[in-house]
Structure formats: structure tokens, C-alpha cells
Design a protein that fits this description.
The protein is globular. Helix 1 crosses helix 2. 33% of the residues lie in helices and 18% in strands. It has helices at 9-26, 41-52, 80-87, 109-123, 159-165, 184-188, 203-211, 235-238; strands at residues 2-6, 31-34, 62-65, 67-69, 99-100, 128-131, 153-156, 178-181, 192-197, 229-234. The protein has a 7-stranded parallel sheet, with helices on both faces. Strands 4-8-7 form a 3-stranded antiparallel sheet, covered by helices on one side. It binds fructose -6-phosphate. The site of fructose -6-phosphate (F6R) has 14 residues, from loops.
Length: 239
């Protein structure tokens, strides 16, 4: 595990974007794994800047998102489809057919999970997976549980996760109860993982995930087994 600690969020965002940019420069057809939430916003801002300056292109790249809420159509403002459009895809040159996000409004969510796994299989391994971490240690929407699922599946969101994400919705009741998420098996198959955490409120879970026992009750702790994990933390998240 390679751990990098930054004084400011901006420095972290620049470093993370720099790692992604370096990958695209050496491997233009890289397969990227993207996350949503607050954590990657600044990183996407940096990628947009690097693209606008002509330093990187996503034209040959493919991207897979970790997850999507079940029941939200793609144009819903809180969907992860809308998030990716707004913060990244509207501003870069990645081809529409190479952007993959689970379809939360698919009539048969289980079939959608199988479709997504097949797309992942066809793409080969993800070269670089960007991850945030939930306060309960979730990655993607793989919540703490006695056992974890390897492939893409429908996950029930914990009360804590719904509370945390309620800030993006008009009310708590409107936060979906289920999501389609890539499984921990697919996440761990990525060639390289960037785990990012910002803010003092993440310090406790970052410590449990990286220094505590490997347990499915802290899904991010499984990342300790990954051969190429880079952890990027702000000073307050590093505790
Ligand atoms: C997002 C995702 C989640 C978030 C996590 C942290 O696609 O899969 O695991 O990374 O909930 O969210 P933020 O960054 O909002 O604290």
C-alpha cells in the first residue's frame, strides 16, 4: 500500500488527476473506474482542466461507474448518470458508447447486473479504479455484511448511507433504498486502485479500513489485500 497525505484538498485533487493523466498518456485506451459522491468532485474538475488545456484526451478510453440508484431514471438530477454528465462527461471527449453506468431504471435490475458484468468482462480489467469510502467502510455500495458479493448486484442501502446521502436530496424519504453496485470482486480485480478520503469525519473509518483487521464488516478493509493500492488522504482524514 502506498499512502500519500496532502495539506489541502486541491493538492490531493491535482495528484490524483495527475495519476489518471499519466495513465492516459501512456495508455490512451485505458479502462477507468469512476466513483461519484463529494470526494471525486475536485479530481474531476482537475481532469476537465487538463483536458481543456489539451494535456489529456479520453477519446480512446472506456469508463465504468461503480454504481447507480435503483429507480432513478438517468435524467433525474440526483442520478449518478446526471452527476457524471454535469461534472465530467459534458466537458471531456470520452465517446458516449464508452461510458458505462448501471441503469437504475432497468425494468429487471437483476438482468441489468448481469449485463453490466458482461460489459466489464468484455472490457478486460479496469486499469485504474477510483474509490471514495463511506463512513461505515462501504466501497461502491458494498455495505458492511457477514459476507460480500463479488459481482454486480442490487444492494440495500444502510440507514447510515441513506442519511449521509440525504444531503443531495430534497428529503430523506426521497433517498432510494436500493442501488446497483459493482461487487468487491470486480473492484479488487482492477490493476490499480486509488482510494481517496477527505475530511476529519473520515479519519476513523480510514484507520479501521487500512490499519484494522480485514473483515467484511468494513468492506474497504479488503483493499489491504490489493497489490497496487494507492491511498490519497488529506491531513485531517489521515488523523
Ligand atoms: C460513489 C460510491 C460511494 C462513495 C462513498 C463516499 O459512487 O460508490 O462508495 O464513494 O459513499 O461518498 P462521499 O465521497 O460523498 O463521502
Amino acid at each position: 500500500m502506498n499512502k500519500l497525505v496532502f495539506k489541502t484538498e486541491k493538492a490531493l485533487d491535482e495528484a490524483a488527476a495527475g495519476i489518471i493523466a499519466a495513465l492516459l498518456q501512456t495508455k490512451p485506451d485505458a479502462v477507468l473506474g469512476f466513483a461519484t459522491g463529494s470526494t471525486p468532485l475536485g479530481i474531476y474538475g482537475e481532469l476537465v482542466r487538463l483536458h481543456a488545456e489539451g494535456k489529456i484526451s479520453f477519446r480512446e478510453a472506456t469508463a465504468f461507474n461503480l454504481d447507480e440508484y435503483v429507480g432513478l431514471p438517468r435524467h433525474h438530477p440526483q442520478s449518478f448518470h446526471a452527476y457524471m454528465q454535469k461534472h465530467l462527461y459534458d466537458h471531456i471527449d470520452i465517446l458516449p458508447q464508452n461510458r458505462h453506468i448501471p441503469d437504475g431504471s432497468a425494468p429487471d435490475p437483476e438482468a441489468e447486473c448481469l449485463r453490466y458484468d458482461e460489459l466489464l468482462r468484455q472490457a478486460g480489467r479496469i486499469d485504474l479504479q477510483l474509490l471514495g469510502i463511506g463512513h461505515n467502510g462501504h466501497i461502491g455500495f458494498n455495505e458492511p455484511a457477514p459476507g460480500l458479493i463479488g459481482g454486480t448486484h442490487v444492494a440495500e442501502l444502510s440507514e447510515q448511507t441513506r442519511q449521509a446521502n440525504a444531503r443531495f436530496f430534497p428529503s430523506f424519504e426521497e433517498v432510494p433504498k436500493f442501488a446497483i453496485t459493482m461487487g468487491v470482486g470486480s473492484i479488487l480485480q482492477a490493476r490499480r486502485i486509488l482510494l481517496v478520503a477527505k475530511g476529519a469525519d473520515k479519519a476513523g473509518i480510514v484507520r479501521r479500513a487500512l490499519c484494522g483487521p480485514i473483515t467484511t464488516q468494513v468492506p474497504a478493509s479488503l483493499l489491504q489485500t490489493h497489490p497496487r493500492l494507492t491511498v490519497l488522504l488529506t491531513e485531517d482524514a489521515a488523523g
